[in-house]
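Input chain follows. Return structure tokens only.
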Amino acid sequence: MSNHSKEFFELIRGIGEAKSKQEEDKIILREMATLKTGMENPKVTLKMMKEYMVRLLYCEMLGHDASFGYINAIKLTSSKDMLEKRVGYLAVTLCLPPEHELLLLLIANLQNDMKSTNYISACCALTAAAKVVNEETIPALLPQVLELRKHAKPIVRKKAISTLHRFYQISPSSVPDIIEYAKEALCDPDPCVMGASLCLLYDLLCVPDNVRQLKDLVPGFVTILKQIIERRLSRDYDYHRLPAPWIQIKLLKNIALLCADDRSTSELVYEVLREGMQRADTGLNIGHAVVFEFVKTITTIYPNNLLLESAASAISRFVTSSNHNLKYLGIQALTQIVKINPKYAIQHQMVVIDCLEDTDETLRRRTLELLFTMTNSNNVVVIVKRLLEFARKSIDTHMRKELIEKISILAKNYSPNISWYLDTMNTLFEIDPQYIPQEALQNMMSVIGEGVGIDEDDEEMRSHCVETFCDVIDSKNVIHDLHIQVIAWVLGEYSYMNANYDSSDILSKLCDLVDRQLEFEETRCWIITAMTKIVAQCKVASPEVLEYVRKYKDSKNVDLQQRCYEFLALVNACERNSWEEIMDSVLPLDGAYEDIEVDIDLSFAQDYVNIMIRKGSRKYLNNEEKKVLLTENAKPVKRTGLMVNAYPTVKATPNPVSTSGIVSTAPIDIASRAFSATNNTTDISTSLPKKARQRKMVTSPSSESHHNEVHKPPVTISTAEAKRKQKYQDLFVTDSGSTATTKVSTQPKKTAPKRKTSKGPTAKPILQPTTVESTPVQQSQPISVDDIFSDMVMTNPVPQVVHTATQPKSTMNELDDFFSMTTTAPSVATVSTPQTTQDSFFDQILQPSKPSSVALQPVPMSKSNDIIIPQSKNKRTSYMIQQLASSHKSAFSDLVQLVRDDRVLVEYNKFWKSDSLIVALVLSTDRGFVLPQISCQFSPPSAFAMTIQSDVESKQKPNGLTFNSLDTTRPIYVAITLTPTDIVMGTRLVGQVAYSNEQNFASYLNVNIPIDTIDIITEYPDFGSTSQFAEGWRKYTQEKKNLIKLTGPFDINRCIDTLKQKAKISIIQIIDMEVIGVCRVVGRSDVILIHSKFNATANSGTITVRTADRTLTENVSRLVSSIF
């Protein structure tokens, strides 16, 4: 670095000390201007140019375009000084894209350096060629690269093979004899060249046509692998005392591709695979990687029982490991081996269950794939039940989609009976129907339509489906369009089979469906078709149904238009003639599977075709005739010599002018068009596939007789472990006597021709400070407060104007500068209320203790923009707040201003009870204002039960209270009690306060109070001992661990007090620098376990939170981490 200039060091220091992107950009722009000037100087030396090029690389790496220096980089590649040449090639490979126009100038330098006697120059050129070459420049460099395959230096030969590999990746046809070159490199005496050829051979083997040509390499691969595992290679290739692990992995990948499904070839590698896997098991990470590759190869080639047993033994060490990475490898390897024989998963069934409940998302996903692979007709019920549970809980859309697709496949292939299959599909519709494959929907309708072949059972099953789908419609929940399509088809075909619903009820439900907001307009087509079928069954069209059909007959959707007009045409025809005669012939009862004869030859159009041929149209050619014609046209024309005559002159002919009155004489394929029209029919009544044929039971030849049984002594297990194994033993039931899973079809035995159909379509909570919003609005006409709330929609308030409010402070000392003085709390007896006394009111929401002798001073008066802000002068308000504070903890030391205008001030505080949260609001006014009427109304937060009380006479209304008046002598106190009904984070209490002023004009204030994580948790002093904590720690699986940095000098007692006071944690035990504690959700039994471990030296700590709910864990962890 001492050879560099001062400007270079200043550039590096400036970049490192830049405090913003803007400052960094200024430095780079200034540097680029300097470089541009310096490179244009004709007297610049090559040494200085080398430094300029390094500085230019910094500019490029930081995202700036320095293309002005590319030409100088190319010039440096022709330098005789090796260091300057390498810098030039480095700049070219990093900056010059393959499609750049200056690349042509580099080709000559690359060719010269590849011919150089200096092997370092050749290596630089080969490396650069692999980086910047494109398909057009490969032919210019290919001869030189092929010559370098025979270079005396192994490093040059290795780079030449790597460059050829890159050429093949860019354009496979650019290197004609690439397979021969790869075989020659494999026989190279130097291991580094041989290793480079393995990468090329792997890409060649990925092309199926090349596998047969390279089968003869298997003995060579076996010999090389045997030499490696016997340590015949130089120790320079060892890594952690394992011989050439990366070459072993490449060899195993190639062997797997060559020996797949080939018994004779696989028998050549059995012995070396067994020996190599035993020697690779060193207990180190690199050894685990090689063993895993051996297992993958063993499960890919033709199976061998002894090798499978060895692989299963190696997998058991991975699966039972406490390391998540090794456990992931074990589950992945177990998935591979279970495809051959599911019995190998039985011994690991308890570990698999534990992996399903692990906090690692990737491990759970891989375990679910294992369950999908090992499913058969005996354990499908248990496995699908488990997969459905995970699908309900999953918040990852990609994982949910994958789960639903796999469940639908398992239900189709292995369902024990039709009822279970239909219940499973209905459950998928409840979870997320948008991810159900279209094929699964068609299969579901086919199963319902075909049944089992027994009339009584089929009628009962279809009646149950009708009743289930009617309940879905009555639920008023949002139904996905795909689900609606299935519902419409079932109700249209089989609604008459259910005695609980008559046709009028079904039609009413379908009218409700057709008028809903739908995602696809085609869904309405399904509903209209269902209504048509039901009208055909009951032989009457009600006015309500006709009204809905007429409503959609002018729809923009042509398909929907057609169905509506067909419906009306059928009804009109029936009214003129006979309902039974027309409807029974057009839409027969249970006619979904009647046989339909299809005229494949389209004989009805033959007369028309003959007429068009006589008029000169081209005859239609079938596929065989077209192939013959194409073959004849493709035959090359033999020539006796070069054609020396001039080409015939082609006269340009004007394009024919088409008019509306001229018919094109181009050949018309009448039959094909008519047949395509038949295929594209839109009759939903026939939208079912052909009746399924009974699938053949597919079993692989039993290989149990070849398995070597290993006798082991009996293992004694505890009673609890035995119960746990008994609980999950059904999950791992396998098919006896078979090494392959058996697919059981849900389709009935009877068959019917397939009909041509048209298929239907197919916030994290954030802890935020309190926001204060208010909008004083003057109405143009007098209005009462009740009128305001009668039309109010709490979820869509009027646009608000955000005002700045005093932020809540956390301690009493911090509020000393905010309150001007302290006063003594007044006596309870001095206050009278119209309905209840103060004590009786508080008895409804708390058990008060004696009030303190000192009360906090309310908010003083202030002025802002000539608007007088009222004070809370009434000392009774602070006294009431202290009554709450004396029994329960509060969020703030005293009342905190929430919202205000020139007449009304709204203050609040939050108090935490063991079973609820109390939000205390105080409404006050000042300066002699007397408000004749004031009202408040609130929207209950999500997952909270809400009650509202006040100590002032009021009129009760839904979620609110109305007061007769508000004056300066008596503020209004409102207590809002919130009780959680579920675990929900980041919600808010929103509402409005409305009042009438002296002129009887109405104004309102918007109230918005966040409900944070701290508001829904409370202490849990009665939790129990350390042993109960340990039991809960094993039980709860949702874990979150955070590293915290402490401020100030380390004090373990201060950390414990912080956990108690700011996170409401009840301390269970303190062991040196470790603290375990517990808290719970307010009003619920959800327990939160917290383990804290502090480091006095680093002044830091680790806090781990465990609960049974993932959302709760995330939010509590975020809260606990923020208090330090």
